[in-house]
């Protein structure tokens, strides 16, 4: 068995999800929502370049997918707080 990673893109989400969402003003998310989506997309692109079996990359993808989900829905106060904590912990 050989060591090392593969170049397999293991992100299983759709990259069109955020592009088809209504504008930030339409769902009351504020003007910086587009910036956050772009930051998450850029981070996903960076992490997808890492080895597919990297536990760091797998965890990061899960957290980024959670961020994408929270950005795409109308959030409760607790979900807003979770979103802020996730962004702060990821430093993106």
UniProtKB/TrEMBL annotation:
Task: Give the residue ranges for region: Disordered.
Answer: 1-37
* Bias type Polar residues, positions: 7-24
Domain of life, source organism: Eukaryota
Question: What is the name of the protein in this document?
Answer: Uncharacterized protein
> What is the taxonomic lineage of the source species?
Eukaryota, Viridiplantae, Streptophyta, Embryophyta, Tracheophyta
């Amino acid at each position: 068995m050989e060591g090392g990673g593969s170049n397999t893109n293991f992100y299983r989400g759709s990259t069109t999800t955020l592009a088809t969402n209504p504008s930030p003003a339409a769902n009351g998310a504020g003007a910086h929502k587009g910036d956050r989506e772009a930051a998450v997309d850029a981070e996903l692109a960076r992490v997808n370049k890492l080895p597919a079996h990297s536990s760091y990359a797998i965890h990061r993808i899960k957290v980024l997918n959670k961020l994408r989900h929270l950005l795409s829905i109308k959030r409760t106060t607790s979900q807003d707080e979770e979103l802020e904590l996730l962004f702060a912990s990821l430093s993106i």
